[in-house]
Amino acid sequence: WLDWRANFFAMLVAASAVGLAALILLRETNQHRSQHLRIAPIVEAYRAVLRTPAWHAYTWPLVCSNAAVFSYLSGGAFVLIGMLGIEPVELGLCYSLIIIGYVLGTLVCRQTLPRWGMQRAMIVGACQLVLASTLLAALALAGTRHWSAIVLPHFLFMIGHGQIHPIAMAGSVAR
């Protein structure tokens, strides 16, 4: 009934209603607010976290992996439809395959984490990310102009992303 911009207006209205309801209906549960809102302890807590090698070890691989995922999500349609000429329905199938890769990665994580531990599972997942990225780059450098040269490496990448994502989230906030 309306053009595509109406989606954004509907989300703005819904988010504003939820935010207003939270402000009105939810009460503060922290009874010691004054001491926790001083700037010096907050800055010191951030400094302590930033000095922790484990935080860096878990956070930066996830940051890079998320950057790659969002690059694909934002530019994939342009490349696959605009440059390689696939149909929009086929794009939906390609994106579905990517999500299946992520789900498979989280299942791999669930199975391997108890046996391997966080560090080894994180390393294996990160190696999967590097291998998938290398495959994507090699296919691009070889001049392969087919949807599968983009989607299949991203599928493999998402398996690795699905494996490191929960581990990195837990490891980065553990301290």
Question: Which key features would you list for this structure?
Answer:
about 85% helix, mainly alpha, 6 helices, about 180 residues
Number of helices: 6
Low-confidence regions:
none
Task: Name the average pLDDT.
Answer: 92
- Helical residues, percent: over 70%
Shape descriptor reads flat
Order of helices and strands: HHHHHH
Secondary structure topology:
Blueprint: H1 6-25, H2 33-36, H3 39-50, H4 53-83, H5 88-141, H6 148-173
Helix pairs in contact: 4-5, 4-6, 5-6
Question: What can you see in these coordinates?
Answer:
The chain is mostly helical. Helix content is 84%, strand content 0%. The protein is built from 6 helices and no strands. The chain has helices spanning 6-25, 33-36, 39-50, 53-83, 88-141, 148-173. Helix 4 (53-83) packs antiparallel against helix 6 (148-173) and helix 5 packs across helix 6 (148-173). The radius of gyration is 21 Å and the shape is flat. It starts with 5 loop residues before the first helix and ends with a helix. The model has no long low-confidence stretch (mean pLDDT 92).
Summarize the structure.
With 175 residues, the protein is an all-alpha fold.
